[in-house]
Structures are given as C-alpha cells and as structure tokens.
Amino acid sequence: MKSPDIIIYTDGSSRGNPGPGGWGAIVATSERVVELGAGNRHTTNNKMELSAAISALSYVRDLGGEYTIDMHVDSQYVINGITKWVAGWERNGWINSKKEEVLNRDLWEPLAEVVADLQMSGCKISWHYTPGHAGIEGNDRADIIATTFADDEKPELFNGDRSEYDVDLVPHAGDPKLLALKKSKSNLKNGVKAYSYLSLVNGNLEKHTTWAECEKRVKGVKGVKFKKSVSADDEKIIMKSWGL
C-alpha cells in the first residue's frame, strides 16, 4: 500500500465543555513535520476538534499542490459531519434532521470550504477514526498540544525535519518501510542527550537524572517499564502511553 503524501493528526480539548479549551494538530510530509495549536478561553470540545481540522487542512491548502492526505481524528462528530452530514445541511439551509439549526455552523462552513478547495486542486482526503488515549503516538501528541493550550500554557511546537521528530506517526505498523523509519528514529533518539529517565515499578513512577539510577531501580524486577526522554514534552508522551 502506497503511503500518503501527508499525514495529519488532530485533537481538541475543553476543560468544562464549555470552558477553557485548546486544539492541536500535526502535519507531516515525508520530509517535514509542523505542529500547530491554539487556545480559547471559552469554548467546547467539538469546536476545538473542528478548529484543529480546519487549521491543519488550511495549512496544506496554503502549501499548494496535489496530495493524498490521511486525516487521523479521534472525533466521530467531525468525521461523520464532513463525510455524511454536511452536504445535506448545506442543501437544507443549515437545518438538521430534527428541523433545528446546525450547531457550530461557523466552523462547519470553513471546514467544508477547505475540503472542497483541496479536492478541486486534485487532493484526495481519507478520514480515519483514531481512538483517543489508546497509545497512538500521533494522537497522544496532538492531545498534549490541545490540553496544554487548554490549561493556558504554551507548548513548544515542532517545525522541522521529520527525521528529527521523535513522535511515531506510522499508521500501519506492518509496513516494512515504515517500520524501518521508526527504527531509524529510535536510533536517532538514542544519540540525543537525555532530559530524564523514567521508570514505572508496581505502578509507581520515578524520574531519574542518570541511567545508572534508573537501571538500579528496574534491574531484576519483573513487569517494569523504563524509558529515556529527551524533553519535557517527550516525558508527557511517555507517561501518557503508560496510562499515567
């Protein structure tokens, strides 16, 4: 199976729904990765999910060109809306099947517009449901960006070579070429100076400044987890992948 030209992961978050919120997105070509995100002091989770998709696809539209695009989204609301419902809403004057005004029309319209623009330019978009908090690194990273903005903090957003990006964006783990890419990233990470070493023993997490300290805690103990992190954001990704 041919890999897509562009892989996108998006996520939205709201503390309170409505409440403070944020969105995060990762846009990756074979050579580069750009992280996007922003916050809103009073919003909903669905609004942030839509904002993430709009912003990511708008970024691709601004690149110009004809691409195959894989959209990985953990919101059935977004996927069903753009693939099943929006055409009917437009025909019916933005009235839904319950004869009520469509919620979030101010966001559905720009999403439908950017999708139409990309399709007219020859792009092909595939929408994939990606369950949240399931250890999928691309989704986990988008979630961290979104929740950090929701907490009124500013995460460090990556913009650079894909070979230097630590998050695994591979959606098809069985593809030998993509597995080789994942391995090369792992080797690259091993050559980067450690930010910390994490160990999880009997459900208790500890952070270590040296590998010797971490090794001493985990050596000979069954069922432990341990991993090197290279940044504060990397720490968050590791802990989330461990269910913490």
From TrEMBL:
Keywords: Endonuclease, Hydrolase, Magnesium, Metal-binding, Nuclease. Its cofactor is Mg(2+). One of its GO terms (molecular function) is RNA-DNA hybrid ribonuclease activity. It is an enzyme of class 3 (hydrolase). Residues 2-151 form the RNase H type-1 domain. SUPFAM superfamilies: Ribonuclease H-like. Its EC number is 3.1.26.4. Monomer. Belongs to the RNase H family. This is ribonuclease H. It comes from Candidatus Nomurabacteria bacterium GW2011_GWC2_42_20. The lineage of its organism: Bacteria, Candidatus Nomuraibacteriota.
